Predict the structure.
Amino acid sequence: MFLLIMGPPGSGKGTQAKVLARKYQIPHISSGDIFRQAMEIDDVLGKELQLAINKGQLVPDELTNKIVERRLLQEDCQKGFILDGYPRTIAQADALGLLLERLGCGLNKVINLDVDSNVIIGRLSKRLLCKHCGASFNLITNPPRNEGVCDTCKSSLSVREDDNDKTVVDRINVYEEKTKPLIEYYNKKKILCNIKGDVDVVEATKAILACLER
Ligand code: ADP
Ligand code: ZN
């Protein structure tokens, strides 16, 4: 199963991607996670990523394509994957299309989580992340069982550096301008599932599965 999940920042795509990865036994490929890992290493690449990400801007297409492609060529991706956060521009979508063609496969479905921008701002300001295992929580919609502690690995939770008010607004604007056009791009290819994303996690999962099994 080759899947892609899209939606504005804070739409819950990472959370849903993890559920789907477990259900279909496919790797969850999050460009944001890959970049955050690379940023932990303080080298030239880490610095270049930091420059874009901490300002709420996109990492340049060429660099993004290269980093994600390297991941998608690994053995565990050959039978399927769920992409989360990539592609984010038409140029990235074209690059992905070419790569998949070369590999002799293609996306089965593209899930689009539709969430109003007012809801997003509220959600992002309440988001907590586990740097150790990548799990994410939300103080309002999906709180950790113990305050400040990851349910999965018991590490302490932190706020993502790019989840501050200023950066959030920039990320939403970038989404509207660069990423939203991909909805029509995949709609034309007749593989788009539009899902209402401003509902709770379990309900959104149900709607996604119903669409995938159609
Ligand atoms: P969110 O979806 O909440 O914005 P992500 O973890 O997907 O969070 O992305 C965090 C940041 O990483 C983005 O704001 C952007 O700067 C960068 N990024 C992630 N994926 C891409 C991509 N495909 N192209 C360019 N930049 C990206
Ligand atoms: Zn954890």
